[in-house]
Target: DUF6646 family protein
Amino acid sequence: MKKIFIFIVFFTVSIVNAQAFKGKEDTKFDVTATIQEHGSGIRISNDYGLGENISLGIAASYLLSVDRDGLGNKPDFGDRADIKLRFNANIGNVFNVDEKLDIYPGLDLGLRNFGAHLGFRYFFTEGFGVVSEIGFPIAKYKPEAIGFERLNNQFTFNIGASFNL
Model:
């Protein structure tokens, strides 16, 4: 897991060279694949620009591929799904680089935890691009989570497509 984290950080930092966030009333819609320990899934997020460098949004995720527990049980829908409110600081223009990359650290408040994320979106055209994001919990609502309660309380890596609406 440490090697994956180091690779992601290196990859993310090495391509930070542009900015795609346009500011107030700018809307981004992302569809990504989620990769995490004991499962993978799909995530949909929507971020709406409130000011020059601030955006709010919502993200919903669902784990499609989940490992069974030691007794052979699979998690139910409630264990697989999560919804989060997001706050992003779009800081690409702070670095004064090309306008095709949006760099955004942020915080999220979900059904299972309070967490943070760091992501970027690179736009090939005005409306289409790629997105990558890492996320991790800061405070879990159930610190002693066991079994399937741990599924949405861990480090995640997302990669997928982004659309500028």
